[in-house]
Specification:
CATH topology of chain A: Rossmann fold
Strand content of chain A: 15-25%
Strand content of chain B: 15-25%
Number of domains of chain A: 1
Distance between the termini of chain B: 43 Å
Oligomer: heterodimer
Helix content of chain A: 25-40%
Number of strands of chain A: 7
CATH architecture of chain B: Alpha-Beta Complex
Structural class of chain A: alpha/beta
Radius of gyration of chain A: 16 Å
CATH architecture of chain A: 3-Layer(aba) Sandwich
Number of helices of chain B: 9
Distance between the termini of chain A: 31 Å
Helix content of chain B: 25-40%
């Protein structure tokens, strides 16, 4: 569970000061990213991974395992949660350089203690190297070209676990791939071995999540 | 040789706009030039139109509204890019949208350095509006209403689309957002494929003040209703 400690409070205060001074247009984004819906949907990921691990469906992360968060955005919660879950090496990617600045300020303490890198990347067009990652997470499938095409014919480690989330918030600007049912999410991700698929009702939307792998 | 080209497709603009553009050029461009008015029949055969329709058809219509199609996919106005990359004209080429208003002498367009093609930079979006909106494909930093290039300088864009046709048609509705993301380095550090006209030369009617409008050489009217264009570009008095 994410713990709001004095150290986290210090980093978040610092991040918010930076937003107010340097990019006040991101204030609303920041408040959304630390809101209850974000916390619930991110906690859903590590809770599910923990359950799948207990069931023996996936392996516990090793010391040298890597996790990638696609479209990581401001990401105030998930890196801490993934570290608590057992990952030591994290790469975040997002096309928005503002998000990188906010993430790095909000996770300053965490970054000093763990291997956390944030890259400005458009994963749909730039084709990053996925072959180092044991776990790949994208909680923003509603913004993007279907993931089955992004990972088609790309080299990944055998057994890499994928976590994909999507939303039914069709009316939001920039949403181009929303779904109504988790089966639609399974279809657009193209995952062939499904460990988990479900939905979560949040305050303004329903979120869908599928965990699985490509055989 | 110096060329000015325009493109008319569909029924959005009549021949009156083509004639109007030519008249404006004759008044404000004093260098020797050839004027070419293209239609979609002059464009090369490709699967772009079919895929544009396909990707708009499969997009759940709840993603967009009639007034704001920017999340609909389909790379609308892709025909401009087909023209830019397949013009088959030698020398310097200037493309102009049919809904531009030329106010002053524009010989300078043909004096520009030809090392790179040229685009309008949306200076008015710089800073907050651009940084807040680029990821949701609003407020692009460039505008393709007036483009200047030499020979086949624009061809790489067509090659990129042919190589990434599904991704491009799925992701983008506006060609300006597409060009900005993939060929300009405003947010991602990519090398800029283009140079940009000096600030104030070519302005957006909706984004600058009256003095800036008066002082500009060319005014563009992106996204505005037909009656505004008729009134300001054609001089039609709408009641």
């Amino acid at each position: 569970m994410f713990e709001y400690t004095p150290e986290v409070a210090k980093d978040w205060t610092s991040a918010f000061n930076r937003i107010q001074n340097d990019m006040p247009w991101r204030t609303k984004d920041w408040l959304t990213s630390i809101g209850p819906d974000q916390l619930r949907s991110k906690k859903w990921i590590t809770d599910t991974l923990s359950s799948l691990q207990e069931e023996g469906r996936i392996e516990a992360p090793g010391e040298h395992d890597w996790v990638c968060q696609i479209a990581a955005w401001n990401n105030p919660f998930l890196s801490q949660m993934l570290i608590d879950y057992g990952y030591e090496n994290i790469v975040c990617m997002d096309m928005d350089p503002d998000a990188k600045l906010i993430h790095n300020a909000a996770n300053k303490r965490l970054r000093s203690m763990h291997s956390i890198e944030y890259k400005t990347r458009d994963v749909v067009f730039e084709k990053p190297d996925w072959s180092q990652f044991n776990l790949i997470i994208n909680t923003s499938c509603e913004h993007m070209f279907p993931m089955k095409e992004v990972f088609k014919n790309r080299t990944i480690l055998p057994g890499t676990t994928f976590v994909f989330q999507c939303s039914n918030l069709f009316s939001e600007k920039g949403h181009i791939m929303c779904v109504d049912y988790v089966e639609q999410l399974i279809d657009i991700t193209g995952l062939t071995d499904i460990y988990y698929a479900n939905e979560l009702l949040l305050s303004k939307q329903k979120r869908f999540m599928v965990v699985g792998t490509y055989e | 040789m110096k060329h000015v080209v325009c493109l008319r497709w569909g029924d959005a603009y009549s021949d009156e706009y083509v004639d109007n553009l030519k008249e404006q050029l004759d008044e404000h461009l004093t260098v020797d030039f050839q004027f070419h008015s293209f239609t979609e029949e002059d464009l090369p055969e490709s699967n772009w139109a079919e895929l544009s329709e396909f990707y708009q058809a499969i997009r759940d219509p709840r993603h967009y509204t009639f007034d704001d199609m920017r999340d609909s996919g389909g790379l609308s106005h892709f025909r401009k890019l087909q023209l830019f990359g397949n013009c088959d004209l030698e020398g310097d080429i200037v493309y102009m949208d049919l809904d531009v208003k030329i106010q002053k002498n524009i010989d300078w367009l043909f004096d520009l350095d030809s090392a790179k093609p040229w685009l309008i930079k949306n200076y008015w979006f710089a800073g907050e509006r651009f940084r807040k909106n680029f990821a949701v494909h609003r407020s692009p930093m460039i505008n393709s209403s007036v483009v200047k290039w030499t020979g086949d300088q624009m061809k790489p864009i067509n090659t990129f689309i042919d190589t990434n046709i599904d991704k491009v048609m799925f992701t983008y509705n506006a060609i300006d957002n597409f060009i900005q993301d993939q060929f300009c380095g405003f947010h991602n550090g990519k090398p800029h494929m283009f140079n940009y006209y000096d600030k104030g030369r070519i302005v957006n009617f909706s984004e600058v003040n009256e003095t800036e409008l008066e002082e500009s050489d060319i005014i563009t009217y992106p996204g505005l209703p037909v009656w505004v264009k008729e009134e300001h570009v054609l001089g039609v008095e709408n009641v």
